[in-house]
Structure formats: structure tokens, C-alpha cells
Design a protein that fits this description.
heterodimer, A: 195 residues, alpha+beta, Gyrase A, domain 2, six-stranded antiparallel sheet, 4 helices, 33% strand, globular, B: 998 residues, Ubiquitin-like (UB roll), FAD/NAD(P)-binding domain, 6 domains, seven-stranded mixed sheet, 23% helix, elongated
Chain lengths: 195, 998
């Protein structure tokens, strides 16, 4: 499923659109919807000898330890469960990465699917970014390792986040992007700082 | 009169005046006042009326235990009922109004109940309104409801916002008095992560008011230093105005922070609910003083002794020129001394004990205050205000010895530890005879996962009432919480106190007339005589007595009344207080506003609303939405001047005759992959999926283990090891979880992975005779009948969009479902709308979808199924493999009642008059059942007006349905009459499928 070819006859915008078109809220922390990012959900036995090579081939990174994420620029690989990794890469690279995974894991039981469009991604930044998450996620941020990928919930929906730069990157499902943006904006309102 | 003293007041700032109103009357106070203090400063002693007798009520307490001074606070969108004036901080422009009075606070017509009090004893309502039965609902209850009730329920949408926050601590200390501060210091110094909460706006609790010294410093000085030391510790978090409300399993604590109650409209959240997970919880929640039960103890001007002291010392309030102190302990002498030091008169201290020779009584005598031991108050004189007291012997029956004129009475019946948080999660209590109170039993604490004490009570909350014991106990609790032995505690010094004497009724031999004026529960009007009556009528359990008399059931939850009430009950039952026990302490400690519990969940983010990539387009078109799970799907796209029914009719007709577009993105899509994927799907579905050819689609049914149909959909074989499973919209998450359940728990050795990719794709159903024309115009892949026949799929591009096209139909028309990556879904939809104009394209909604499928006799999960229906009931035997050894539900379906030939089975129903059968109607037959109800032989599962056939059509489950073609059944209508329908084939339109096979 590539996007090139002779069938292209309408001048519609084929640029991939994130769920909220990059919505921004400036409160005591800044909330910004970003993306779409390339994301691949890879399920396989993480201790299979072919697994590291597949991950290397897809995003050029090694395997993360339990509940950790390895980041390098626009690429990352996060541990999601004992048999699941989340690979992050530029949106346009996902299809090629899937092919490389298929080649590296040929004959090995695995599942690799493109979930780039199934997700919404947010950046929460600023010195008090942690307070925004403290209001929504039952997570002890003081106990969060610097390179930890935390699967949790944000109020009523599933979410995952990790520390990145001067804040956090949070991932949710795409259909609830508006709800999550609402949550983050509500929690980041000026005057509601936790101290 | 109550007035403001010329000097003093450790909590008020006389340089900052605040104006406020009470019942519309303008009054003035100072920053630092509570509303109660400010009302007293304005001589507003009368603050409300009691619940039952509408007796005048004045301020009794100075903290959260206040039963009387409840006000409607604020107005309009900031109106809050039942706010305690004693814990409400004064702010500029505060508006308060009294409650439970009509027509006015000063002249209340309900006071007539007071004079009829003899006719309104405990259980009055239960006894009086029981017959005739029907009268309760229609006559009695409306009248009782109108005359009862406290504050007004707000009618406007709350103007404020609320939020919640999570916190984690090794040690959570609830209560910022000297015990709590010391516990936090000790725990903090050990390096543990400590969180310290204080419900008021000030640290230090009672010690500064009571003149305690710690290590040679005044309590104020020591508290200031302690707080500074705690603030310097990075591992310690301090929060004022934050009330520990409830303790739950595994160290979970809810705390309600009143962020902006005192600064309304400043943009901050009004409350913040903290959800805390703590390793150990120290409850340093202090103690509450008990009233004494003497006749007229509810007349405004009778206050708790410590509250009088608080008002004098903290807020410079004079309760009146002359205050009589009545007590059974030494502590109340502090109030007499404080009043004396403020230049006010204490005509007499009435001490029920035979003698009072401790340090404090001696100090009072030395100040020239008259002390009468062995004496009691026979009755308080006055109506809306205290005018005096009549004294008698405590040992007697109430014969008046003398009368003393006064404006206020300060009473103290001893102190009860605040054991609520200790008790919430199962901590047990022990009776402390010396102090006549229940206190935490350290040998029976609430326990955590390893069996150790989850809660440690400290200070006065642990029964350590004297300052020295209190501080040492806080120190010990801090050490225990971090599992350390440590340095000696600082030494707190306060005057020694002689033992108190339990006094539950004053005088002890009081006659019935006096007991009927001794209030236990001020808010609910429960008197000593009511509890004694309950005991005489056989209410032995304290829990039953509570509910019968309503003792402790008011908004204060019996903080003042419980111990006195159960002591009176014990006396009436001639048993010991520990044998009577306490009622159950349940969270929250003080009321938590619903806004805080809801937190951020209101308005737009009340609940997650799932939106497809095209949702905004639908909104812009004015679509009428219906909820489907958490999704909102367009029900129809009504045009200007069109009813919904007309819109549905148009959408159906256009789809049959030209071209319809449906946003099918919500459909569940689950990838199932692995060497055992085929075997796995053969178990999940009733049919066979493993032999499906790559590139093909097949419809399948999923059943629960018990055999009932739970989901359906089309499976596409992607490659040798990969299937794509379509589920219903509501089934996506549920079926994915169902799959993982079986894979992880039962068939863990099968090589299968699943992934829910529902949201990865926008899915557009392109439906109708012109469907192929549109896709061919978009171009990019061959969608011809030969290249892409019915029940196949192909990957390719359409109009430059990455597309996977399924040739499947839920309408009976030529139909393609096109899956596009979600981030391009809207663009694809818009492209289809624009390109489809020449083919008569129109979007259609879920109702048209339903009508289209019903015309074709297709079932809908949730309409034809309801959890009691098996596929065989729906004539879907063709989709059940007879060859397979097993599938989920197979054995369930073999059970006798599911295999019975008498089950109701699916048929089509054609009304004889062409009308539409009411939804949910039952087909009736002769006779009645054992309950006298009409026998039934079937029910309607789907019923619509068919725009295609121009008549009502329906499907239903009918007994022996398949063998009764041509028979007529009868469906009664709501409101009378019935509609007759002929049993027909369920496929109403294009039975041969000619329209979709083109």
C-alpha cells in the first residue's frame, strides 16, 4: 500500500493529518498535540535471537529493558509488555520499516502492524509539566526512571508516557484525542499549580 | 451581646476589614475570621433553626463538629448549602443565609412543632404515617419533605472548576497540631517521603490557644519553627486547608483540599481531591469536646467551653459579659481563665465533680472566680438567647438552688478522640474509663498487605489529651511509622489536670420534663428522652437506635452527639458503654462536595467521546448523532426542513437508487496472526475460518462459552498466517479482550498474536448502484466484478490514497468498504463526496444502515440478540460448522433448553395493514401464566418503516417460527389496540442477492 502511482487524479490534501491538527494550549505548562508519528507495534518473543536484529533493522536501536524506552532523535523503541515493543520513527518511514522487520523475522512467529494512525501524541512541556500528569495519571513520578515508558491511564482512558526533553511525551488512542487534549488543558490551567 | 474585644485575636488581621452579608444584612469582619467568628462579632448568635422542632440554634463549636451554624453560602452559580460557618473563612463580599426557617429566621412558623414536641417523639413519623399505605407517597411524604430539609439545592450550573491529583508518600500525617507536626518532623528526619495535611488554614491545632509551652518556647513559636524546619526538608510536603476525608485499603487515602473556597472567582480550582497512596498513615486528628446534657443546652449562647476559648483567644470575640462555665473536668477552667484574662466575667464555674482541687481550679479560684463543686445546671433560661442558668445539685433531681444571670454558658463534658480515620478501614476502639471516651486500640489496628499496622493514631486522637503526652505520642508515632527508635521527644508543658468524672445527664436524677429538654443531637433534635424511649421500645442495638431516633444522622454525623447518646442508651439498657459500642465510622470525615469527587469530569470532558476522523465533517453537516458505546455516530444527516424520519427515508432511497456513503470507521478491526491463527479462529467462530482463501472474506458468528451469540462480522484472510477480523462497533475492545483472555489463560501455547487496529483506519462504505462508478473515477485499482468479486478484498490506491477495499455488503447493494489510514480518512471522505456528486452521492447514517439491513433480513447484534439468543434461533445454522469437533459455545448450545424445538426463532413480520409494529412489542396468545399475565409467543426484535417497500417491516422471534409461515400473530400496542402481522421470510427485499452480485 504505497501512495504513489498513476491513480492520483484529485488534488486533495494527502498529507497525513494528526487528530487535532497540532492543537496547542498554553497554561502553567504547554500542551501540544504533535504527529502523526510513525509507530509500529511489534509482538514477538523478545528473547528470540532474531528480535534484536529486527528492531535494529527497523529503527537502528537496541532492545529496551523492561518498562524502558530507548530514544535517539526521531527514533525510539519502548517496552510495552513481555512480548510487545513500540517502535517510533518518522511517519513516512513506517512502511519500509515494516518490510525490513518482515525480512528479519521471516519464519519467526511475530506480528508487526502499523499503528501510526491509531494514536494521538502530545507533548507536555515546561518546569511544571509533571504536575499536569500528576492530576490525571495514578503514577508516582518521583519513582519514574528517566528512561521509563509508563503505561497508565489519563483519567478515563488508556495512555502511555515518558520523559523527553523539557517535559513528557504522552500517547493515547486517536479517537479520544479531543478528550485527552481537554484533560491536559484543564489540568494545565494557570492558577491550578500544585505548588 | 456577643461582641469583638478591643484587643487580641491571634488569627485575625484588624488592618484588613471584610464586609459580608447574612440574610441580606451587611456586617463587617476581619481577615482571618471564620464566618462564625464574624457573625458573633456582629452579635448574630441566632444562625439557624433545628430540623424537626425548628428551635432557635446558635453557634456551638469552632470547628468541623459544628451541628448548628450551617448556612447557604454564596448565590446563583456559587450557592452551596449546609456550609459550616465555623470552618468557612471570611472573605470580602461573602454572602450567607440561614437555613431551615420560614418565613424568617427570627419568626419561624415551624416553631409550632416545638410546642407540639410531646406529640413528636422518636419514631413519630414511622408510627404515624404507616397507614393507609398509599397515603405515604401521595400525602404524607410531600408534606414532610416540604417542612423538612436544610439548605437549598443549587439550581445553576456550578461556576467553579475542580480537579484531582495523585500523591504518594511513605508516611502520610493527617492533622497539623503539635502531635502531627512532631510526627512529621521525626519521619521527615529519617529521610522518608512525608506528606502532612491540616484541615484548617493554620498549623498548631489547640496548643497555642491552650497556653502550652514546648521546650521553653511558646506553642506559637515552636509551631512556627517546626513548620519552617519541615518546609526546608525536600522530602516533606505540607498542605493546609486539606482535610483527610477517608482511609481505604492498602494505604489509600482521599483528602479534600479547599483551594479557593476563601478566594472565589480568582481562577483557581475551588477544591482539589487528593488521591494518596501511603505506606503508613498517622492520624493526628485531635479530639472533639463533648456537650453536657442539661435542660436547655440547645439555647443559643450555650457553647462548648473550648470553642468559647477559641473565639476569645483566636478571634477576640466576647461571648457575652457574663459566661457561666459548666464542666466535669479541669480543662474547661482554661476557658474561665481565658475569659477572665480578656476582662470578662465568669460568675460561677459549675463543676459536677465533688471536688476540684487541681492546678487549674486553684488558679481560677486565685483569680477570684467562684467555683461550685457537686453542682449542676438545672435548666438554662432564655429563648433565642441565654439569659441565665438555674443551679441545682448534680446528685439531685433538679431542685433549683439559685439562679445566675448570664449571656453565655461554656460547657465541657470531656473530650472524645477523633477516631474516624482510624476506624474507616477496620481499626478497633477501646473504652478508656479514666477519660470516658473510646480511643484507638493499638493492638487492633487497620492492617496493610503484610499484616502490619496501616494506621498509627497519634496525640489527642490516640487519647493522649494532655499536651505533654500528646507531643510525646506524636513523636513515638513518627518513629514507629519509619520503623525507628530515636532521640527523645521535646517536652511540652501545660498545667496538670485532675481526673474528670463521667457525667451523661445533669442532674443525674433529672425528671422526665427536664430530660425532654436535654439535647443530644442539635441538628436532628434528638433528646435524652428520645433515646430512653427507643430503649424502652426495645431498640437495644446502637445501630437501630441511631436509625430510629436519627441520632447522629445529620450532616455532622454525630460528632458531638454520638458518645453522649450511646452513654444514655447504655444507662437506659442498664449496661456498660463498651457493651453498647459505637455506630460505624464511614468516610468522609466531613462532607466532600460532589464537584471534588467528579473532578475534571464535567462538560466536554465528562467522559471520553470517541470521534472518527470524519466526525468534524459530520458535525459541520449538521448530523444528528447517536451514542454507540463511547462513539457518537451520525444517526442521519437531516437537511433544512427535514424531519429525522424524512432524512432516513431519503438516505435509504438514495442508497438503493444511486450512491450512499457511510462512515464505518467505528467497526472493530483486529489483526490475528500466527501459525495457529486459523485454528484459533475456528475455535472463536461457529464456522470454519482456517480454510478461507487468501484474498477472500467470510461472515462469521462468535458465541460465548455458554452458547449465546455475542458478536458477528466479516473475516478477511490477508496471508497464510494473517487474518483481519471485523467486529461490531461495540465489540472491538470486548472481542479483543476475549481473544487475549483465551490466548493468555487457556491456549497459551498456541502461536497467535493479536492487535486491535480499529483506530488505524478510517473506513468508508461506498454503497449503491453507482458505487463502482465512483471508485473507478477515483482510479488506481481494478474494482471490477471480475477483479474484485463479492466477498473478496484487495490492497491498492484510490485517488492516490492508500486503500484496502473489501467487497462486502450490509445493505444488499453493490458495496465496497474502503479502509484508509485514519490520518487521511477525512481527505478521502471529502474526495468521495466531491467526486461522487455526479453519481448522486449522499452520506447516510446509522438509522438508514439499520433499515437497509432489515430490508435484507440481516441480523444486528444487540437487536436480534440480547444475550439469550443462540445462532440457531436466528436461522443461522448455515454459519455453524457441523464438521468441527469444537468451538466456543458448542457444548453450551447442546444443553436441553437451547436445543429445544420450542425455542422462539427468527421470522419476518409483515403487518396486515402496512403499519409499523411498535418496538419491543410482544406477540400474545391464549390464556394467562401463573402470574396472571397474558401468555406470549414471540417478540419484535427490529421494526422499521421500509422506504423501499413503502410499508412496515419487522423481524421477530416467534415460537416455532420457521414452521409457521403465513400464519398471523397479534401484537398489542401501548395504549390499547393491537396490530396483526403475517409471519413471512425475514428477507424482504432482493432475496436472491441480484443487486449485490453485479
Amino acid at each position: 500500500m504505497t501512495r504513489t502511482g498513476p491513480g492520483r487524479m484529485f488534488d486533495a490534501s494527502h498529507m497525513p493529518q494528526s487528530a487535532l491538527g497540532g492543537a496547542v494550549f498554553d497554561g502553567f505548562a504547554r500542551v501540544q498535540e504533535i504527529g502523526p508519528l510513525g509507530m509500529i507495534s511489534l509482538r514477538c518473543a523478545l528473547d528470540h535471537p532474531a528480535c534484536p536484529a529486527a528492531v535494529q533493522a527497523a529503527v537502528g536501536l537496541g532492545l529496551p529493558a523492561q518498562r524502558r524506552i530507548i530514544m535517539d532523535g526521531q527514533r525510539a523503541v519502548g517496552w510495552m509488555s513481555p512480548d510487545e515493543l513500540l517502535l517510533i520513527l518518522p511517519y513516512a518511514d513506517a512502511a519500509a520499516a515494516l518490510q525490513r522487520i518482515a525480512a528479519a523475522l521471516d519464519g519467526v512467529h511475530h506480528l508487526a502492524v502499523d499503528v501510526s494512525d491509531a494514536r494521538a501524541v502530545f507533548r507536555i512541556t515546561g518546569p511544571r509539566a509533571d504536575q499536569v500528569l500528576t492530576k490525571l495519571c495514578p503514577v508516582d513520578l518521583a519513582a519514574l526512571a528517566p528512561d521509563e515508558l509508563r503505561r497508565t491511564r489519563a483519567a478515563q482512558v488508556a495512555a502511555a508516557f515518558w520523559r523527553e526533553g523539557d517535559g513528557y511525551t504522552l500517547v493515547s488512542f486517536r479517537s479520544v484525542a479531543g478528550y485527552v487534549m481537554g484533560l491536559l488543558s484543564h489540568s494545565a490551567q494557570r492558577g491550578s499549580e500544585l505548588g | 451581646m456577643t461582641t469583638r474585644l478591643a484587643s487580641g485575636g491571634r488569627l485575625i488581621d484588624r488592618s484588613t476589614a471584610h464586609e459580608f452579608t447574612f440574610n441580606g444584612k451587611r456586617m463587617g469582619g476581619f481577615a482571618g475570621d471564620t464566618l462564625a467568628a464574624a457573625l458573633l462579632a456582629n452579635d448574630q448568635m441566632l444562625v439557624g433553626r433545628s430540623f424537626k422542632y425548628h428551635r432557635p440554634r446558635g453557634v456551638v463549636a469552632a470547628g468541623p463538629e459544628e451541628p448548628n451554624a450551617l448556612v447557604n453560602l454564596g448565590a446563583g452559580a456559587r450557592l452551596e448549602p449546609n456550609q459550616r460557618a465555623t470552618t468557612t473563612e471570611l472573605f470580602e463580599g461573602l454572602e450567607a443565609g440561614s437555613q431551615n426557617h420560614w418565613p424568617s429566621l427570627d419568626f419561624d412558623i415551624g416553631i409550632l412543632n416545638n410546642y407540639a414536641a410531646k406529640l413528636l417523639p422518636a419514631g413519630f413519623y414511622y408510627k404515624t404515617f404507616i397507614h393507609p399505605r398509599a397515603f405515604w407517597k401521595h400525602v404524607f411524604e410531600p408534606i414532610v419533605r416540604q417542612s423538612a430539609g436544610l439548605g437549598k439545592a443549587p439550581k445553576d450550573r456550578d461556576a467553579d472548576r475542580y480537579e484531582q491529583a495523585y500523591a504518594f508518600a511513605d508516611v502520610l500525617v493527617v492533622g497539623g497540631g503539635i502531635a502531627g507536626l512532631q510526627a512529621a518532623l521525626v519521619a521527615g528526619q529519617s529521610g522518608a517521603r512525608v506528606m502532612l495535611l491540616e484541615q484548617t488554614a493554620h498549623w498548631g491545632g489547640r496548643a497555642p490557644v491552650d497556653g502550652v509551652t514546648v521546650d521553653g518556647q511558646s506553642a506559637d513559636e515552636w509551631v512556627k519553627n517546626a513548620v519552617q524546619a519541615l518546609e526546608r526538608m525536600e522530602n516533606v510536603t505540607l498542605r493546609l486547608r486539606c482535610c483527610g476525608a477517608g482511609v481505604y485499603d492498602h494505604g489509600y487515602v482521599l483528602a479534600d483540599e479547599r483551594v479557593a473556597d476563601h478566594t472565589p472567582g480568582d481562577g483557581r480550582p475551588k477544591h482539589r481531591l487528593w488521591r494518596i497512596r501511603a505506606g503508613r498513615i498517622i492520624t493526628a486528628t485531635g479530639a472533639i469536646e463533648r456537650p453536657l446534657s442539661f435542660a436547655g443546652n440547645d439555647i443559643p449562647g450555650v457553647m462548648l467551653a473550648a470553642a468559647v476559648r477559641d473565639y476569645v483567644v483566636n478571634f477576640a470575640i466576647s461571648p457575652g459579659d457574663r459566661t457561666v462555665v459548666v464542666t466535669n473536668n479541669d480543662d474547661a477552667y482554661r476557658t474561665a481563665i481565658a475569659l477572665h484574662q480578656a476582662g470578662l466575667v465568669v460568675p460561677v464555674i459549675v463543676d459536677a465533680r465533688a471536688q476540684a482541687n487541681g492546678a487549674l481550679p486553684m488558679q481560677a479560684r486565685a483569680l477570684g472566680i467562684r467555683v461550685e463543686t457537686g453542682k449542676a445546671i438545672a435548666k438554662v433560661k432564655g429563648g433565642k438567647r441565654v439569659t441565665g442558668v438555674a443551679l441545682c445539685a448534680q446528685a439531685g433531681e433538679g431542685a433549683v438552688l439559685e439562679e445566675v444571670a448570664c449571656e453565655a454558658v461554656a460547657m465541657s463534658g470531656g473530650w472524645s478522640p477523633v477516631v474516624h480515620l482510624w476506624s474507616h478501614c477496620g481499626g478497633k476502639l477501646t473504652w478508656d474509663a479514666a477519660n470516658a471516651h473510646f480511643r484507638p486500640d493499638a493492638t487492633r489496628p487497620p492492617t496493610t498487605d503484610d499484616g502490619s499496622a496501616m494506621v498509627i493514631a497519634a496525640g489527642a486522637a490516640n487519647g493522649a489529651l494532655l499536651a505533654g503526652d500528646c507531643l510525646a505520642d506524636g513523636h513515638a508515632a513518627g518513629l514507629a511509622a519509619v520503623g525507628q527508635a530515636g532521640a527523645a521527644a521535646p517536652e511540652a508543658i501545660a498545667a496538670d489536670e485532675s481526673p474528670m468524672a463521667p457525667v451523661w445527664i445533669m442532674p443525674q436524677g433529672a425528671a422526665p420534663a427536664l430530660k425532654a429538654k436535654m439535647w443530644l443531637d442539635y441538628q436532628n433534635d434528638v433528646k435524652v428522652s428520645d433515646v430512653q424511649l427507643a430503649a424502652r421500645e426495645g431498640y437495644e442495638s446502637v445501630e437501630h437506635t441511631k436509625r430510629y431516633t436519627t441520632l447522629g444522622m445529620a450532616t455532622d454525623q454525630g460528632k458531638l452527639s454520638n458518645i453522649n447518646g450511646l452513654a444514655v442508651l447504655a444507662g437506659a439498657l442498664n449496661t456498660d458503654i463498651p457493651q453498647v459500642g459505637t455506630t460505624t465510622f464511614r468516610p468522609p470525615y466531613t462532607p466532600v462536595t460532589l464537584g471534588a469527587l467528579a473532578g475534571e469530569a464535567r462538560g466536554e470532558i465528562f467522559q471520553p467521546l470517541r470521534k472518527t476522523p470524519m466526525h468534524g465533517w459530520h458535525e459541520a453537516q449538521g448530523a444528528y448523532f447517536e451514542p454507540v458505546g463511547l462513539w457518537r455516530r451520525p444517526y442521519c444527516f437531516a437537511r433544512a426542513g427535514e424531519s429525522h424520519a424524512q432524512a432516513v427515508e431519503r438516505e435509504v432511497t438514495n442508497t438503493r437508487n444511486a450512491l450512499g456513503l457511510l462512515d464505518a470507521s467505528t467497526l472493530g478491526k483486529i489483526v490475528v496472526k500466527g501459525p495457529d491463527a486459523g485454528k484459533f479462529l475456528d475455535m472463536l467462530y461457529t464456522g470454519v475460518m482456517s480454510n478461507l482463501a487468501v484474498g477472500k472474506c467470510r461472515y462469521g458468528l462468535m458465541c460465548s462459552e455458554s452458547g449465546f451469540l455475542m458478536d458477528d462480522g466479516v473475516v478477511a484472510r490477508i496471508d497464510a498466517n494473517t487474518f483481519l477480523v471485523h467486529t461490531t462497533t461495540g465489540g472491538a475492545d470486548r472481542i479483543h479482550a476475549h481473544m487475549e483472555d483465551w490466548l493468555q489463560c487457556e491456549w497459551w501455547d498456541w502461536q497467535v498474536y493479536t492487535a486491535n487496529v480499529t483506530e488505524q483506519y478510517a473506513q468508508v462504505a461506498v454503497v449503491g448502484p453507482n458505487a463502482r462508478k465512483l471508485l473507478e473515477k477515483l482510479g488506481g485499482m481494478d474494482v471490477s466484478k471480475d477483479a474484485l468479486p463479492f466477498m473478496t478484498w484487495a490492497d491498492g490506491t484510490l485517488g492516490g490514497f492508500r486503500a484496502r477495499v473489501y467487497r462486502i455488503s450490509f445493505s444488499g447493494e453493490l458495496s465496497y468498504e474502503v479502509a484508509i489510514p485514519a490520518s487521511e480518512g477525512l481527505a478521502f471522505w471529502q474526495t468521495c463526496v466531491a467526486a461522487g456528486a455526479e453519481f448522486g452521492v449522499m452520506p447516510y447514517g446509522t438509522e438508514a444502515l439499520h433499515v437497509l439491513r432489515a430490508e435484507k433480513g440481516f441480523i444486528m447484534i444487540g437487536d436480534e440478540t440480547d444475550g439469550t439468543v443462540i445462532p440457531q434461533d436466528l436461522n443461522l445454522g448455515w454459519a455453524i460448522s457441523k464438521k468441527k469437533a469444537d468451538y466456543l459455545g458448542k457444548r453450551g448450545q447442546e444443553r436441553a433448553f437451547l436445543a429445544s424445538p420450542d425455542r422462539w426463532t427468527l421470522v419476518g413480520l409483515e403487518t396486515l395493514d402496512g403499519s409499523v409494529i411498535p418496538d419491543g412489542a410482544y406477540a400474545v396468545t391464549e390464556g394467562t401464566n401463573a402470574n396472571g399475565q397474558r401468555n406470549t409467543e414471540g417478540r419484535v426484535t427490529s421494526t422499521y418503516y421500509s422506504p423501499t417497500l413503502k410499508r412496515g417491516i419487522a423481524m421477530g422471534l416467534v415460537r416455532h417460527g420457521a414452521s409457521r409461515m403465513g400464519e398471523t400473530v397479534e401484537f398489542p400496542k401501548v395504549g390499547g389496540g393491537s396490530v396483526k402481522a403475517k409471519i413471512v421470510d425475514q428477507v424482504f427485499y432482493d432475496k436472491d442477492g441480484a443487486r449485490q452480485n453485479v
